[in-house]
Amino acid sequence: MQLRYAFRVYPDAGQRVALARAFGCARVVFNDAVRAREDARRAGLPFPTAAVLSRKLITEAKRTAERSWLGEVSSVVLQQSLRDAEAAYRNFFASLKGTRKGTRVGPPRFKSRKDNRQSIRFTVNARWSITDTGRLNLPKIGAVKVKWSRTLPTIPTSVTVIKDAAGRYFASFVVGTDAAADNARMPETDRTIGIDLGLTHFAVLSDGTKIDSPRFLRRAEKKLKKAQRELSRKQKGSKNRDKARLKVARDHAKVSDARREFHHQLSTKLISDNQGIAVEDLSVAGLARTRLAKSVHDAGWSSFISMLEYKAERYGRTLVTIGRFEPTSQTCSTCGNVDGPKPLHVREWTCTACGTVHDRDHNAAINIRRRHRPAERR
């Protein structure tokens, strides 16, 4: 299994200039590739192959006065940018044919130097390395300081250097994991748990545990509104506007980082404590079109379930997703009677068949767990 390990990096002034140059060159090659394909489409000609684009947009372009500065960065960065364009077109065509999973994607668009995210990728043949002092040595950029928060399990196959909207730099390594070693790290257990995700509580477990929703965005909303107002008052194109934009981006990054850390800690604990996990397949896209949209996005259910999925696969656990149309909130977990739909404000109800009083979310979590193990005796 391949995973990404991301670490914060701190380039000095000269390295930031070199990275900006590399970001710009990769962006130009990507845009040239998209433009070449669009020109061929309009002219009714076959799409140029990757080899033709590589020769024309990189090798021959370096010899011209207009693109001679492409030689100032690693050629691997330029080749990887071409591969990104090829992958974008493959995903677009697969989406048109219906063979690609997930939401439909559009055709590749031109990149801009004002994009929130800039990135370049180095593969093994770029001869990047990690020095004895723990720095990341990148060709034509130098040895960049890295803040190592954990050790890499294996030798990475590639590294992507990213600059986000908040002006922070990250190094993202692609590493392969050892399944046997990962399984040995997890304690032996035969527990099975059901999880009911919600807004009143982020999660209610079938054992009765209730995990409060941190509501990171709601708590930071007042501060974010103030920063956004200050940004709107700055003159466009001014340095003060750039500073205000960075402040807004950093405030949003703090919210996003806190939410991601919460998801990681909770998903790791659930995977560690349980062999089987059952969770409901929620229609996040549908709920995001309702008046609950801000709270739904603040909870980040999709991100949390994605973490559960890859961690279950990595550590040999079982994750089962229950259909969203299963009447988990309507079924009595004691006698199995389906008591009909109930509005969201009803948090506690009494079964009309057996008289058991149910907490809505706890009852749903128990039913979700039982659908993971249908043979369990009621």
Your description of this structure?
43% of the residues lie in helices and 19% in strands. It is built from 10 helices and 14 strands. The strands form 3 sheets. It has a 7-stranded antiparallel beta sheet. The chain has a 5-stranded mixed beta sheet with strand order 10-9-8-11-12.
How are the secondary structure elements laid out?
Blueprint (H helix, E strand, L loop, with lengths): L1 E9 L2 H31 L6 H10 L15 H23 L20 E6 L5 E2 L5 E3 L3 E6 L10 E6 L5 E8 L2 H7 L6 E6 L3 E5 L4 E3 L3 H17 L6 H35 L2 E5 L3 H4 L5 H7 L1 H15 L2 E5 L25 E3 L6 E3 H13 L6
Parallel strand pairs: 8-11, 11-12
Antiparallel strand pairs: 1-5, 1-7, 2-6, 3-4, 4-5, 6-7, 8-9, 9-10, 13-14
Helix pairs in contact: 1-3, 2-3, 5-6, 6-9
A few lines on this structure:
With 378 residues, the protein is α+β, with helices and mostly antiparallel strands.
List the keywords.
single chain; 378 residues; alpha+beta; 7-stranded antiparallel β-sheet; 5-stranded mixed β-sheet; 10 helices; 14 strands; 43% helix; disordered C terminus
Overall helicity: 40-55%
| Lateral arrangement of strands in the main beta sheet | 2-6-7-1-5-4-3
What low-confidence regions span 5 or more consecutive residues with pLDDT below 50?
374-378
Mean pLDDT: 91
Specify Rg, calculated over alpha carbons: 25 Å
Give the N-terminus to C-terminus distance in angstroms: 38 Å
Structural class: alpha+beta
Biggest sheet record: 7 strands, antiparallel
Helix and strand sequence: EHHHEEEEEEHEEEHHEHHHEEEH
Number of strands: 14
Work out the helix count. Answer: 10
Strand residues, percent:
15-25%
- Broad shape: elongated
